[in-house]
Amino acid sequence: MGFSAFGAAGAAASPAGAPHPGGPEETRTLDELYQAALGEGGKLIIYAGGDTPTQQDGTKAAFKARFPDIALTLIVDYSKYHDVRVDNQFATGTPVPDVVQLQTVQDFVRWKEQGRLLRYKPAGFSKVYDAFKDPQGAWVAVSALAFSFMYGPPAVGSAPPRTPLDLVDPKWKGKIASSFPHDDDAVLYLYSLYAQTYGWDWVAKLAAQDVRFARGSNTPGEAVMAGEKAIGIGGAGSLAAPASAPVRFVVADGHPFMAWGQRAAILKQAKNPAAAKLYLNWQLSLTQQQASFNGWSVRTDVTPPAGLKPIWKYPNAHLDGFPRFMADRAEVERWKQTFALYFGEVKGDPTPGWPGLRPGA
Fold it and tell me: Tell me, which fold does domain 15-145+259-305 have in CATH?
C-alpha cells in the first residue's frame, strides 16, 4: 500500500515495576507545596491542549477550590499550535508557560533532549504506568484519554453500530459527524488504524456517507448530544457512562480504537516552578486520578469502575503505537494528505480561537 505505517502496532508496554533513576519522588504534602507556591508569588501559567477555550474550566475550578490563592492562567489551544508557540518563545527568549500539557507526545522527547524540561518526580510517580512517564521525570502523563466512535441511543434505535465496520452501512448516510482526521493527530491515528484494519475500500465507503466533518475533537460528541447526527467519529468518551447517557461511547473487542497519556512537563525556564510542582502533584493525586471523567487513570494503583480495565489492558487501544506514529512526522504528513484526497481539505476556524504568540504573558 506504500505506507510504512501500515504495519502492526505492536504490544503494550509493561506496567510500573522497578524504581527508575533521576532523583527522588516528591515527599511534601499538597498543603506544603501550596505554601511554597504562595511564597514564590502565587501564580501559575499552563498551556493545555484542547478544543475550546472553556474545555479546561472544570480543571480550573477544581484547582481553585483546592488552592484558592493561586492565580491560575490556563490557556487552551490545539496542541499543534501550543508546541510551536513554545518553540517560538524559546527562539525569541520569551517563554511564558510554567507547565505544558499536550497531545503532541513527540515534543516532550525532543524538549528533553534539548534540555528544556525540568526533571521532577511528583508524589505517586512510582505508581504511574511506565509508558506514561519519562524515567528521569522530564515529563509525566496526567490523564489517560481515548478516541473512538459514539452514537445517540434514541437516534440509532434497536440496531446501533457495534464496530467501525458498521459505520459504512448505507443506512447511516448523512447521519455521521466526525472531526477532520487530517486536522488532529490523535484522530488521524484513529483513522489510520481504521484504514490499516479495514482497507481503503472502507475509507472510500465512509467518504460516500456524506459525513459532516468539522474542526475540534469535541464536535462529533456535541453533534450527537444535540441530536443533529446519530453517530460521531473521532472524539473522546467514557465506557463508564450510565446507560441513560445521551451519548454511547463504543469500544469493540477485536476492533481498533486509540488511547494515549496526555503528557505534562515543567519548563526549565518556568517563572513559577513551585506552583508548577504543586499542579503536577495535584493532578497525579489519588483524589484527582479517581475522579477522571472516563474512569481511566495513569496510575497502576487506581482501580477503574466496574466493567473497565486499566487502559493499558486493552491491546486494541494501541497505546504504544501512538507515540511511534507521532514521532514520524513525514509519515503523519502522508496520512494527512491521503485523507484529504478522500474527505476534502480541512475547513473552518480553529475551535479554541486564536490566542496569538504569547498568551498569558
Answer: D-Maltodextrin-Binding Protein; domain 2 (3.40.190)
